[in-house]
Amino acid sequence: MQSGGASTHQFPLAKFKIEDFKIDFYRNPLDALGRFACMPPEMVDAFFKSREKIEKAFCKVPLAVDQFGRLEDWFKPEADKLYFIHVDLAQKHDHCAVTMAHVDRWVNVKVTNDYSQPAPIVH
Predict the structure, then answer these.
(1) 78 in the Ramachandran plot: left (φ > 0), alpha (ψ -120 to 50) or beta?
(2) What total number of domains does the chain contain?
(3) Same domain, 35 and 7
(4) Which of 15, 16, 27, 81 lies at a CB distance of 3.0 to 4.6 Å from 102, suitable for a disulfide?
């Protein structure tokens, strides 16, 4: 079975084995290691190919918490958006972090000459 460009997180009820992605590993072993085995080949490369895009995505607004630990009034969710929160407890080597985002819209991204896949524009 080949992935067809879909990520395993798009199929939460499916059970995959690494052997299911054999064709992906033959086609592009470095990409397959990062996408399906969670083993990016180089820490410089890691999962993000463009450091500039990541740095640009960081929020430059003030913190949404006041000196008493309460959320500021301006920090209110939009009713029509579905929000996602990820918490990394940093139990191994790095620092604890919390992030929240929502999908603003979807766009088609060209992956190869013959294939494109939907990708989220996240805010």
Answers:
(1) beta
(2) 2
(3) yes
(4) 81
